[in-house]
Design goal:
Helices cover 43% and strands 26% of the residues. By secondary structure, it is of the alpha+beta class.
């Protein structure tokens, strides 16, 4: 097992200490630092950005060729860490000398962790598994001064952790699977802008993801979320099929057909779509078509009838009715405003 000891005062120091063990080079562009590595110990990259409002984003896209334990001394740098694993899995435990077992951060799981000041946090990475992991680090004092004015949106326990600027408490929350967050994480990795525009786009997504972590924790602690019987692979199947619907927007999808293709019962499909998108299957398809229609009206030369046909509707009057219900304007008026 490869052991990496981290004793840092900021994120940049942590990445440099990782580099000294696994190799690679660090480059910087517009405030985003990237460690690229292709060595006998690991392949992939690790990047980080520090924002002015007390938050850093650290992203791992790495495959280690041996098991790795990163042992982090929290004496000098001890943020609240919001973890989300988009691919693979990793692990965590408090204190490398303790008998605590590693608790795994599974794919699509929302996890919030922080140690007490002077403690040790052990981060585990498996051998020969590509791990795509994002960590939003919140430096409490800076964040409280700039962004967090009140704790109304937080569960009391989590809010106390934010207020614990002397780092006296251990906090661990291993939440349920959140595939909505996976979409934001994917968008984060696909930002196409350049320079400061790109950094600002990333910053906006980071704020959304952090908010989603906090909202999920708040709801689950207060038992506001509905328990689900769906397995993680079943939720992933539903998410993948939702993307298939978006890619084949004019196709007539039936619940029976989707059930046959996915192997999921109609009841599970409805449960999954409600859980992930807060919509029934039919509502999701209709909403996806309307979103595509709006883009076509705004960005193409197609007339309304052509748009209606291209997204799989047969009735222009029905399309106009539901378009206005959703967007507050008729398709014709929307087209006029966009094509002046």
């Amino acid at each position: 097992m490869i052991k990496i000891y981290i004793e840092a005062q900021k994120t940049a120091d942590s990445v440099e200490q990782v580099r000294k063990v696994i190799g690679g080079t660090i480059t910087e562009r517009w405030g985003q630092y990237t460690l690229n590595v292709d060595s006998d110990k690991a392949r992939g990259h690790m990047s980080f950005i520090e924002f002015e409002w007390g938050v850093s984003l650290v992203e791992y896209e790495l495959t280690f060729f041996d098991e790795v334990m990163i042992m982090v001394d929290t004496s000098k740098f001890n943020p609240i860490n919001f973890y989300y694993c988009l691919e693979g899995y990793s692990g965590h435990k408090f204190g490398h000398e303790s008998t605590d077992e590693i608790k795994f951060i599974e794919q699509f799981q929302s996890v919030i962790l922080t140690n007490r000041n002077g403690g040790v946090s052990d981060r585990y990475f498996p051998k020969d598994v590509t791990v795509s992991l994002s960590v939003i680090q919140v430096r409490r004092k800076e964040f409280l001064n700039r962004r967090l004015n009140q704790g109304d949106s937080l569960n009391k326990h989590l809010y106390e952790v934010f207020l614990d600027t002397d780092h006296e408490r251990v906090f661990a929350y291993f939440g349920s699977y959140n595939l909505k967050m996976a979409d934001l994480m994917t968008a984060l990795r696909q930002v196409k802008g350049k320079g400061m525009i790109r950094i600002m786009q990333i910053e906006g997504l980071v704020y959304q993801i952090l908010s989603m972590h906090i909202m999920q924790h708040n709801k689950e602690v207060k038992k506001k979320h509905l328990p689900t019987s769906l397995l993680k692979r079943e939720l992933k199947e539903i998410r993948d099929y939702a993307k298939k619907i978006e890619d084949n927007i004019a196709k007539e999808f039936s619940l029976e057909e989707i059930s046959a293709e996915t192997g999921l019962t109609q009841a599970k499909l409805q449960e999954g779509f409600k859980l992930l998108y807060n919509k029934t299957v039919t509502e999701y398809i209709r909403n996806a078509r309307l979103e595509v229609a709006r883009d076509l009206i705004a960005n193409s030369e197609m007339n309304i009838s052509e748009v209606v046909y291209s997204i799989g509707f047969t009735s222009r009057s029905y399309f106009s009715k539901i378009f206005k219900e959703k967007f507050g304007v008729s398709p014709s008026d929307f087209m006029t405003s966009k094509r002046k």
